[in-house]
Amino acid sequence: MIVRIMGEGQVELADDHFTELNKLDDELLAEMESGDAAGFRRTLAALLDAVRRLGTPLPDDALEPSELILPAADATLAEVRDMLSDDGLIPG
Question: Does 90 score more than 70 pLDDT?
Fold first, then answer.
């Protein structure tokens, strides 16, 4: 799956990494719902770090369609809330 981190670029992730990413996504959703700004910031950073660590960066000139778009590391709680679906940022 191709994942885009806004403002950074794209990475290719194997499907078997999504269990780990979904745990972080669930934490992020819970922190957003409770208004835990510090927890939100920490978990968003952990989610993006996991994508960077587990994924293989695509070349800057690659124009692959992204199946998943994640917010930038400096995104606000309101900006991320606008990106959410019922499942969080990561479906499943």
Answer: yes
